Fold this protein.
Amino acid sequence: MKTSVEVDNALVIDALKVTGLTAQDEVIELALKILIQMKHQEAIKSFRGKLCWEGDLEAMRTSP
């Protein structure tokens, strides 16, 4: 999809530096993927304390 947006130049330049990417569209696509991943992780937090688990955590920690 082709979209035209205005993005803060300093943000794009910093993002290009820290990611090693060379194109602005690659940086924007990566940013969107990370945003989506973070939102999915937030949804997972809603399960905290609501899932049943049976096992021996100590045995799992010590087994190779």
